[in-house]
Each structure stands twice: as structure tokens, then as C-alpha cells.
Design goal:
By secondary structure, this protein is of the alpha+beta class. It contains twelve helices and 13 strands. The relative contact order is 0.09.
């Protein structure tokens, strides 16, 4: 086992850290390498709580966990891998200390929960939630970013947002979209902070700075990922879209395969072009036509990932209104950070493994 000299090894106390003592530094800048099953399980039990760790090849365990623990609420941000196929089982879920979120950078993982098998790769993250029996299987080549948020921090943050005590534990939908929508923005934010912590920690040692970062991450997660309090939060916190934007958005999404022009969207909204642009910029951050293009690109990606017949990428793109295929490929890569063919290769590999 290798442990960096500056770290504190009293990890099992981590789940009991009180948020009322923000200046107590339990440990930070974690980096550990373990090559035995029991050691890897004991380490992560100290981070997340009791769990089972199983593998068919215990002699091939190469567990690496590199992370940083922010001081205020003990949020852990980092990366990990096990080096061989492992299954992490959570049965005594009432004693799980945290919400564990992970997104593969490479490789895959799968969560078995409520009789469902939920697949995860670089496009989809997973949440292991307390209070629920579940099993997470990681492929040997899976290297992932990991965010661990204590139950106490999550509960206190949500109670602050609702301005009342919680009657039931917070439970999230387990699959997080890492490509589109608010949850994808959350993952990009988490990855940004992980990257920055790896570059240098001087600023992050300031509790007045990290307190706001942790609060933003937790609130962002609660607001972006569907959970059993989402409806109440929407009623209490959300700003409803103006009627004309609802009409414009519905028109774009219902007719995205057609040859849509700005004048068509303007007519569907029933407002002036100036007001239409103003509304889209304010609520979506893009122009109406940019919104249409982003929606189409997302739809193409979804078809590539899901279409069992493996249709030609060009055919799929043209069906969604992309007539200039070179420009389509460039815009696709800019939005998703990979080529359409790379998406197809991953989709085919996934299908072959399931056969």
C-alpha cells in the first residue's frame, strides 16, 4: 500500500464529520494505492460506509484513488479505478454515509437496482443513494471521476432550500445524463473542480471559498437531477417560461426533422423577432436557430447510440436536417468532444458485449 505522507489516515471518522465545525480539517489530498481486496474495501468503507467488494480475480486488484476533500462539508472530489472487474454491493444501505456519484472517463459500469440494470459510460453517470439496496459492477478498464457527498450535507442543504425539515430521505433517479441538459452541466462543473484541484490547492484551502463551491455543487445536483423532492422544489423555486417561449420550444422540437426557418419559429411564438431572441438568450443562452441545431445534434447522437440496425451516420444526420455532412461532423465534435464515428464505435462495442 502507498499513502502520501501529508494525508490523514483516520478515514473511518469521515462519515461522522459535523458541518458545524467547518475549520476542522480531517484530511485532504488523498492518494492511495492498494493491491489487496480487503484493503481497497476498508479504504472505501471509510469514505462511503459499509459495503461488499467482490471480484473473480482478487490477485489482479490495482485500486487507485486520488481525491481531495473540501473542508466545509467534507465533499470528496477525485478519480478512481480497481484494475479488474469488481462488484460493489450495498445491502446495509441505512448505514451508507453518503451519496456516491461516478462518471467513467473510460470503460463502463452497471448498477443493479430494483431489478433493473442501469448502464453507465462517459455519456451517463450513476448515483448510489443511501437507503436503497443496490450493486455496482465496474469493468476492469473503468477509470472514473467520483464525487462523494455526505448524507448530512445533502440533508441540511435541501432543508435550507425547502425551509423545513425533511420528512423522507432524499432519493435520486440513479442515471445522470452527462451529455445534455442540466445534469450534463453539473458533471462539467464537477470535472472542472477536479482538474483545478489537481493543478493546485492554495485557493481551495480557504474554507470561505470552498464552502460556496460545495454549496453550489450540492444545490446544483438537487436541482438538476430528478428526485423525490423535485416537484416541490419546482413549485417553490422555478421561474416559468413565458408562453411564447413554450410555443416556440414545442414547435422546434416537434418539427426538428423538417426544414425550419427563423420565420417559422417567429410565427409559432406569435411575438416579434426581437422579443423572441431576447427570450431565448435569457432562458436558454442561445438564439432560436442555435437551439434548433443543438436539439438536432442531440437527437442524432441518441439515434446512433440506440439504433439497433446501425444505420449509416449520414442517413441519420440527413433525417435530422443536416444536408452539409462536413459541417455536421464538425459541429457534432465541437458539442460532444468526439466524432460521430467514435460514438458509433462505442455503441457497436456495447451491443457486441451484450450478445
Amino acid at each position: 500500500m502507498k499513502i502520501r505522507a501529508e494525508e490523514r489516515v483516520d478515514v473511518p471518522c469521515r462519515g461522522c464529520t459535523e458541518m458545524t465545525e467547518p475549520n476542522v480539517v480531517q484530511f485532504r489530498d488523498i492518494r492511495i494505492d492498494r493491491y489487496d481486496l480487503a484493503g481497497a474495501r476498508a479504504w472505501m468503507a471509510g469514505i462511503c460506509g459499509p459495503h461488499e467488494l467482490q471480484t473473480r480475480q482478487p490477485n489482479r486488484i490495482q485500486f487507485h484513488h486520488k481525491a481531495n476533500v473540501l473542508k466545509s462539508m467534507s465533499t470528496t472530489l477525485g478519480r478512481m479505478e480497481y484494475g479488474t472487474d469488481v462488484t460493489i454491493g450495498v445491502e446495509d444501505a441505512e448505514h451508507l454515509n453518503c451519496y456516491s456519484l461516478s462518471l467513467p472517463i473510460r470503460g463502463e459500469q452497471e448498477l443493479l437496482k430494483d431489478g433493473r440494470r442501469l448502464y453507465s459510460n462517459q455519456d451517463q453517470g450513476l448515483i448510489v443513494t443511501p437507503h436503497e439496496t443496490q450493486a455496482l459492477t465496474m469493468a476492469g478498464d473503468c477509470h472514473k471521476i467520483s464525487v462523494v457527498i455526505t448524507r448530512m450535507a445533502m440533508r441540511q442543504t435541501l432543508e435550507g432550500m425547502l425551509q423545513r425539515p425533511l420528512e423522507m430521505p432524499l432519493k435520486f433517479e440513479p442515471v445522470m445524463d452527462a451529455v445534455n441538459g442540466a445534469s450534463a452541466s453539473w458533471w462539467r462543473l464537477a470535472r472542472y473542480y477536479i482538474d483545478e484541484l489537481e493543478r493546485g490547492q492554495d485557493l481551495f484551502n480557504q474554507v470561505f471559498f470552498t464552502r460556496d463551491i460545495e454549496s453550489a455543487l450540492i444545490k446544483g445536483l438537487i436541482l438538476s437531477q430528478p428526485n423525490n423532492y423535485s416537484a416541490e422544489l419546482r413549485d417553490q423555486l422555478s421561474v416559468k417560461l413565458p408562453y411564447y417561449l413554450v410555443r416556440a420550444k414545442d414547435f422546434i422540437e416537434s418539427n426538428a426533422r423538417e426544414d425550419i426557418h427563423l420565420e417559422d419559429i417567429e410565427a409559432a411564438a406569435g411575438v416579434s423577432r426581437f422579443k423572441l431572441f431576447e427570450g431565448f438568450r435569457k432562458h436558454f443562452g442561445v438564439s432560436p436557430m442555435a437551439y434548433l441545431k443543438k436539439y438536432r445534434l442531440g437527437a442524432v447522437r441518441q439515434e446512433i447510440l440506440e439504433d439497433a440496425s446501425v444505420r449509416n451516420i449520414s442517413v441519420i444526420a440527413m433525417c435530422w436536417g443536416f444536408s452539409h455532412l462536413g459541417r455536421f461532423a464538425s459541429e457534432y465534435r465541437k458539442l460532444f468532444n468526439e466524432t460521430p464515428s467514435a460514438t458509433l464505435q462505442r455503441s457497436e462495442a456495447r451491443r457486441n458485449r451484450s450478445l
